[in-house]
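If you are new to this repository, start here. Below is one unmodified record pulled from the training split, so you can see the exact layout before writing a loader.
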Amino acid sequence: MIIGGSASQNLAAKVANLLDEQLCPIETRRFPDGERYVRIKDEISDEVVVIQSTGYPQDENFMELFFIIKNLKDIGAKKVKVVIPYLGYSRQDKRFKPGEAISVKIIAELLEAAGADEIFSINLHEHKIIEFFNILAHDLSAIPLLAEHLSSKVDDPVIIAPDKGALDYAKTMANIIGCEYDHMEKTRISPERVETRIKNLDIEGKSAIVVDDIISTGGTIVNASRILKDQGAREIRVACVHPVLVDDALLRIFSAGVDDVIATDTIKSEVSVVSVAPLIAETLKNG
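And here is the target side for that same chain:
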């Protein structure tokens, strides 16, 4: 049995269809005072899979998820597997300043307290976030899905990581497509000047694909795109797993000379053209 939270109804339906599983109807709404209402509208099975992404509005989506999990346990579910395609608060995985909350650690504890037995997420911002869970947790990757989608659309591209943190994504994508990859590197030219450029490859006249896990404000992608244009890239495409896309991020990206942006449906957006449903379905089937 599969239940989709309000942030992932379409994705849950796709997964249920792929697995030929029952999609349990759920009612969620907000009371006039802003409080959340959740009702499971069908008899439940012993094992239930809940799918709920936790992008904006993060707090509402998390509260709804906690209510669903705890409610399932209270009404008789013996095992609740929780799929969180995009795990909100993932970027606050340590204390950057004294006294800060390690938000994602608290989220992990709350998920366990609600009754989650197993957690699945996709391309966590840092893989070490898995260590915050005391239950079985999985960090899946949607990069192969993006690579397969792009392989039929671009001939002999160069995959570019906008920073070292995204280098593994670029390497994975390049290995699947069968092309070269590189990353942006900052070099101090003088005490006052830092230059950012492609570390090794010459991309003059080539098609570049910039890959990252998250696009939020778009600042990193805009900077990378301008550098690629300056160094002679013929066209620039951008691929990401999680299209957070705050405010006018897409407008800024296209204004920087990007030709195309693609993302997955871990978060619903106008560029979510690659579904993670097959990845989730296959993982659940094999688990």
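Two things worth knowing about this chain: The radius of gyration is 20 Å. Residues 142 and 149 are 11 Å apart (CA to CA).
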